[in-house]
Amino acid sequence: MEKALIRCSWCGNDPLYIKYHDEEWGRPVRDDRVLFEFLILEGAQAGLSWITILRRREGYRKAFAGFDVHKVAVFTADDVDRLMNDPGIIRNKLKVNAAIGNAKLFITIQKEFGSFADYIWGFMPGNEPLIHNIRDLGGLPVRTEISDDISRDMKKRGFKFFGTTICYAFMQATGMVNDHIEGCIARY
Q1: Percentage helix, strand, coil, to 5, in the chain?
Q2: DSSP readout, 143-165?
Q3: Does the annotation mark 119 as catalytic?
Q4: How far apart are the C-alpha atoms of 9 and 95, rounded to whole Å?
Q5: What is the pTM of this model?
Q6: Minimal CA–CA distance to 107: which of 36, 163, 162?
């Protein structure tokens, strides 16, 4: 009898969710373009389910210039209008404007720290991911002291849609923390 594969149950049976779980979630990211992508996507997710955003990911990629932070940072009012009429993304003007403003702040951090990765990973002990030993989803935190610290610092810098809960989801998505349950096939 073949042993069943164990996955974190949050990904369910949706092939898109399973692929994201198996190939991305919890894997350390130090590439600024990917970090900017998740900054936009996690901000868009506020108040919505992650699968809603994941299903629109390609729409976001097209709408936000392939997640090129320098292109997004110079979006104009015409771009905001274009985005507000784009059915491929969540058309929330506050979130759209936040993504553009956050792009400008992202570049400021890159200039100050050399890269956004250096900045964000600098909050992690030893610049390494935290690997949590979680037996079931009930043990998953929604925020931590580190996510509080990052969120507080980013808020002070002017970032929008990046409270501590969104920050922690960002940390999970980009592998700053590994919250795969024990025995999960994607746990490293």
Answers
A1: 60, 5, 40
A2: --HHHHHHHHHHHHHT--S--HH
A3: no
A4: 29
A5: 0.95
A6: 36
- The answer to whether 42 touches 50, Cβ cutoff 8 Å, is no
> Which one of 37, 42, 60, 121 is the catalytic residue?
42
The predicted-structure confidence for 96-128, as pLDDT tens digits, reads as follows 999 999 999 999 999 999 999 999 999 999 999
Q: What single-letter amino acid sits at 165?
A: T
50 among known catalytic residues = yes
The catalytically annotated residue of 17, 25, 37, 50 is: 50
Four-point Cα dihedral 54, 59, 63, 67, nearest 10: 40
- Tokens 């043990």, residue located: 139
For residue 60, indicate whether it is catalytic.
no
Contacting residues for 172 by C-beta, under 8 A, at least 6 apart: 25, 26, 179
